[in-house]
Write a structure and sequence with these properties.
about 240 residues, alpha/beta, globular
Length: about 240
Amino acid sequence: MTITAEDSRAYGPAGGTHGYDDLPRLMALMTGDEKHGPAATSTLDVLWVLYDRVLRVTPERADDPARDRFLLSKGHGPMAYYAVLAAKGFVPLDWLAGFGAYDSPLGHHPDRVLVPGAEIGSGSLGHGLPIAVGTALGLRAQGLGDPAVWVLTGDAELDEGSNHEAIAFAGASGLDRLHAVVVDNASASHALPGGIAARFEAAGWSAVTVDGRDHAALHAAFTAPHPGRPHVVVARVEPKYAV
């Protein structure tokens, strides 16, 4: 089971008055050190396509039990996330200029208590996918079979052992409302034997690998049917350390 474009239109994707072309300007408002710029920009197109065309959540429905859940596991580089949340009306635009300041809600790691629309606090890598598995299980246990759970991780983050348990459990449990997006900027130290998609497929997941800057390809991958299985989209972007 997966989300279709028709589903998104029925529920209404997040609105907002800014478009994709505004995102570089919004990100430029966030200045200072410790920005993890490459980590942030690697996620920009994935985040935009999800919030613009796939996720069934709006600022008005941020607490609706029937909303889709999006978990940013790659929380150490949140600038693109904040820019998309601002463009879609979850957070005020004038918060962006205070990014990382002592009294700003927009910290270097997202805080779910402070950032409207954030489902988890993140930044310490390796936790988002296990939390997403637990979230999908919890929704199933409550009889909420419609909300989708999405989690965004980086390729290097998959080196963390907690992810291997989560991948194996989700596949064996047939969590078909669970969706993972792995942004692959070739920064993993150990990588996965056979490639990222093969690791998930071996555990029973549906898997697609696409160009992480191609919006049409991303949307097609995000909305591909995957009955009875969790789904992963590996979004390849330019290497973090280009030769």
